[in-house]
Amino acid sequence: MTLLKREQIPVVGLDFMNHDHAAAAEQINQLDQLIRQTQKGDKASQQQIEPLLKEIYAHSKHHFAHEEAEMKRVNFPAYECHKGEHERVLEELTQILLQWQKNQNSELLNDFLKTTLCHWLVNHISTMDNVTAMFVGRYDHSVA
Ligand SMILES: [Fe+2]
Ligand SMILES: [Fe+2]
Hints:
mainly alpha
């Protein structure tokens, strides 16, 4: 069973974003898989969670920085608001990693994944990323 299916990820008007969003969904699905295996008592899966949480953070940072660079390039008016959301989520990812390192509580991690991260990703793409992609697309079309 896949947690985030391809068709649940909104498609926006910029390919690099769609590519990053597909990779983020893939990481979320991997984490879901590892949590499920961990909860069945699989120690090897449990040990893979920390490196994956670090990869999720690193990929998110890169993904967000690319969007922020595009917003700056075109003077996107809601830059601060969109960037602020990215920063908030990076802080949440940092906290969840620290929490995992402290107690390896798979219930808490599962709860964060299912009730926060998944919904945030889909919602963020369909709102802020979608509007940003449209703005960047129009800007590039107007100066082409
Ligand atoms: Fe994005
Ligand atoms: Fe974004």
